[in-house]
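Checklist before submission:
- one chain only
- standard amino acids only
- sequence pasted in full

Submission:
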Amino acid sequence: MNHFAHLVLSQPTVESTVGNLLGDFAHGVDADSLPAPVHAGLLNHRAVDRFTDSHPLVLEMKRSFSRHRRRFAGIALDIYFDHLLLSHWERFEERSVDEVIAEFYQRMAAGQSLMPGTEMRRVTRRMIDYDWFGSYRDAGAIAESLDRVAARIRFVNDFDNAIEDLQRHHELISDGFLEFYPQLQQHVLELAIETH
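Returned file contents:
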């Protein structure tokens, strides 16, 4: 799952927001030195990733990618899952998505001092300033985001234009997500990592 979905699966606190985002910025971070609620958020993020990466429906989606992009299928799906969650928001949540996004941005701004390292603070400020979550509703923005990821990979790759595979198999991926995501929600509820 990507940033937006991780926050939807987090608790409504600044510390949880920071911890659930931290999973993508935790390289070199001493997790044991984090405040307990931030550390719990990080553990929740990792549990979400483990469940997602090993789920049979997600593995089937990855196999649908063309051979030259399959190595990066997990990255593409993570970003596309944010798009699908936003596209089918009313199936999973009652509150207005714009209200939820605004709350996430408020917590991200309030949590800057809790974020270890300048990179996380820089990227989360960009998320807020350029409304990444709002833009994920548009498939064109997803395509641009995927191409930016491809450009940052430090070796020659064929990941660019990954949106082609996502659109070619949109029905399989969309149907799979709609079946998978409620199972992920239930898994997070049952683990209750952040509510002990």
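Reviewer check: The chain has a mean pLDDT of 91.
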